[in-house]
Amino acid sequence: MPVLVAYNDTTQGEAAFFAAVSEAQRRQDTVVVLVLTPAPDDAPLPSHLANLISQAKTGVDVAFRSDSLDVADAILDHAERIDASMIVIGSKKRSPIGKFILGSTTQRVLLDSPIPVLVVKGGMHNGQRPDNTGGDTSIIDER
């Protein structure tokens, strides 16, 4: 069962990608990247994502979010469609009050997902590559 990573071209997306690759290697499985910017599935890969994939030491498939679904629904639907073993999403650094309330997408995925969700802080991999993210990753919800 693949590891699904919700990706956008941000430090949070990059950190989530590396954490997903690390988790997939640990599980001896593949990664499915769901690009959150809406596009048809035959769209070209964003150059930043293509560069990240070239560094991965595991199989990586890519799909794009349909613009007919909001982000949380797209993540949850795609996880179900591919029978994912885990969802990995990036998270922004937040103020003390902001830490109490997660972003609405993150919160919906955490609450509605029937599988484990790994939330990764953006920019935490410190330049290390997929075999060792070196970041602060925590399993938030292990269902």
Task: Walk me through the structure.
The protein has helices spanning 11-27, 47-55, 71-82, 96-100, 104-112, and strands spanning 3-7, 31-35, 60-64, 86-91, 117-121, 137-141. By secondary structure, it is of the alpha/beta class. It has one domain (3-141): Rossmann fold, CATH 3.40.50.620. The chain has a six-stranded mixed sheet, with helices on both faces.
Radius of gyration: 14 Å
Distance between the termini: 16 Å
Largest sheet: 6 strands, mixed
Task: Tell me how many strands there are.
Answer: 6
Protein name: UspA domain protein
Region (Disordered): 122-143
Pfam families: Usp
InterPro entries: Rossmann-like_a/b/a_fold, Universal_stress_UspA, UspA
Q: How do you describe this structure in short?
A:
It holds the Pfam family Usp. This is UspA domain protein. By secondary structure, the chain is α/β, with parallel strands linked by helices.
Could you give the topology of this structure?
Blueprint: E1 3-7, H1 11-27, E2 31-35, H2 47-55, E3 60-64, H3 71-82, E4 86-91, H4 96-100, H5 104-112, E5 117-121, E6 137-141
Helix pairs in contact: 3-5
Which key terms come to mind for this protein?
22% strand, 143 residues, alpha/beta, 5 helices, Rossmann fold, disordered C terminus
